Amino acid sequence: MTSENKVAVITGAASGIGRALAVHYAQHGVHSVIGTFPGDPHDPEETLRLVKDAGGEAAIQQVDVRSTSSVDGFAQRAMDEYGRLDYAIANAGILRNSPLEEMTDERWHDMLNVDLTGVLRTLRAGAARMTEGGALVAVSSIAGGVYGWEEHAHYAAAKAGVLGLIRSVAVELGPRRIRANAVIPGLIETPQSLDSINSLGPEGLQRAGKDIPWGRVGRPEEVASVIGFLTSDDSRYMTGQSLIVDGGLTVKMRA
Q1: 89 falls in which pLDDT band (50, 70, 90)?
Q2: What is the pLDDT of residues 43-73, one digit of tens each?
């Protein structure tokens, strides 16, 4: 590896946006540590194969964002494997359906432990190993980041919290010249959104796509390229910001 190669850690990279981002980085000369949850049914080896097909280099590391020691070990893998860490992407998340009346404390805490505190752990571990010029990105959602979503109060609360976390981290790390930004994906065709029990499912996505100005739901690579921008030198004066990637869904006037 030459000194020109940047290195990224990506949680939730066995599928969806995380997988697309690892491939995007491979196409731009950035090495990745592919974070995969041990219970994830998606194969991180497929992400690795796609990275190599794109001419890139990556390593697979199991990580549970509910555990500080696991996340610290994940970030340290970049240092051990490549000798540096430049970008940390907090992408891992869960999605669970729960009406308010059925929202137990356990359900609430489990969701926030992954989708909000897990983001904190990832940003914290990444920043601790970065030098000037590093970049952090957290993945939020239009559910919570823009809209409310019935029967998903815990998910929306976590995703809204991510935005406040990013703003504060950006202020704190600014003197170190480490940037922190967020993306707010709209309706994106990922394994999570294709889940008919906890999300819209295939038919729901198809129906919803007709109401999006762009005429369809988004693709993982369309969010990945925005994350790539937020960690590149092209956005070197952007920090504490949140970019919505939704095909115009949130700006469309309803009749």
Answers
A1: very high
A2: 999 999 999 999 999 999 999 999 999 999 9
196 pLDDT higher than 90: no
Question: How far is it, in rounded angstroms, from Cα 154 to Cα 239?
Answer: 27
The answer to whether 25 is a known catalytic residue is no
pLDDT for residue 198 is more than 80: no
Annotated catalytic residue within 25, 82, 155, 237:
155
Residue 250 CA to residue 20 CA, distance in Å, equals 23
